[in-house]
Amino acid sequence: MKVIDGGVTAPIGYQAAGIQAGIKKDKKDMALVYSESPCEAAGVFTRNLVQAAPVKWDRMVVQSGAKCHAVVVNSGVANACTGEEGMGYCKDTCDEAAKVLGIPADSVLVASTGVIGFQLPMDKLLPGISILKDHLGSAREDAHEAATAIMTTDTVPKETAVQVEIGGKTVTVAGMCKGSGMIHPNMCTMLCFLTTDANISKELLQKALSKDVEDTFNMISVDGDTSTNDTVLVLANGQSGCPRIETEGEDYDTFYAAFHQVMETLCKKIAGDGEGCTALFEVKVVGADSREQARTLAKSIVTSSLTKAAIYGHDANWGRILCAMGYSGASFDPEKVDIYFESENGKLKIVENGTATDYSEEKATEILSASAVTAIADVKMGEESATAWGCDLTHEYVSINADYRS
Length: 406
Description:
Site (Involved in the stabilization of negative charge on the oxyanion by the formation of the oxyanion hole): 113-114
CATH topology of the largest domain: L-amino peptidase D-ALA esterase/amidase
Order of helices and strands: EEEHEHEHHEEEHEHEHHHEEEHEEH
Oligomer: single chain
GO cellular component, one term: cytoplasm
Shape: globular
Helix content: 25-40%
Largest sheet: 9 strands, mixed
CATH superfamily of the largest domain: L-amino peptidase D-ALA esterase/amidase
Catalytic activity: N(2)-acetyl-L-ornithine + L-glutamate = N-acetyl-L-glutamate + L-ornithine; L-glutamate + acetyl-CoA = N-acetyl-L-glutamate + CoA + H(+)
Number of domains: 2
Subcellular location: Cytoplasm
CATH architecture of the largest domain: 4-Layer Sandwich
Radius of gyration: 22 Å
CATH class of the largest domain: Alpha Beta
Number of helices: 11
Number of strands: 15
Active site: 189
């Protein structure tokens, strides 16, 4: 597997654009991802009962089995809690994109992110589609412009791409995502768009996405809030020329490894860019008797506000970790747990069999002062493990969200 410098235009046959349509003041706010040839499409969506109109729309498109050509994305307004009018705006967007791009209306997917409860300014959005078409390109910068246009409180665009060989052909999997706050997936998080030139069936594409999201986007949290707009969409146009992947086996495994690499990289970029954060916080639970037990424990630790605050303060307050494990709902013996902190500054065992070791507070503070910090909890019950990602909790998080609408 080869990691390359690329975004959604890295696979063969994809173009992208990002522009300012006037939805937001002085920032890019619309993006378009387009494939010259029809794509198999897969998606996973928020489980929040309050679902934005684009979530409902895209679920219908993906489940219909229609081949897809394009994804139109806007930032600034979420098109959530907008009733039938919001659904009508999804249809209007798809109809306009179909007319402008010369593709079927049912081949267009839509996504929105931003403030909940406001209607989309269609007088800006619809003309923006024609502007996007004029800016479409397959260059690296075109992908970067699209990734920038979908940002809200993100501080950096989030992109990645990898290549593998399948059947003697180079296959590329790439993606972009956005997400910084309202991140606590019960599926995935905020918005993520993946493109690939692999020739893979819709059924296996959906299987890969649904399976992998459980170990990637479902394992991150910034603030415990599951968004109304969470969406991950994958397009596969088959342009690599690789043999068609219709059954599980070596080719599928190779594709899945590349797919997982992209998904994990993107979800860590979101966790590490949480609103106001200063550090990526990774939690590994090892020695579990089941994967589900490990996931439950890891997510309980990574979502603990007290633990996140301690990470911000570079405070090795391990009691908060053990406490979060205790209320997770998973069964384990607290008197057998070992806990470690690790970063680029070293690794330190701070708890052995449920009680503190004679560790150095100064060394612990040094380890916790890095920009990426890992907590490892060994429950000594089996061979299963899981990893969750989050970030520290800072004063700035409150400031950002207190002023979000203004």
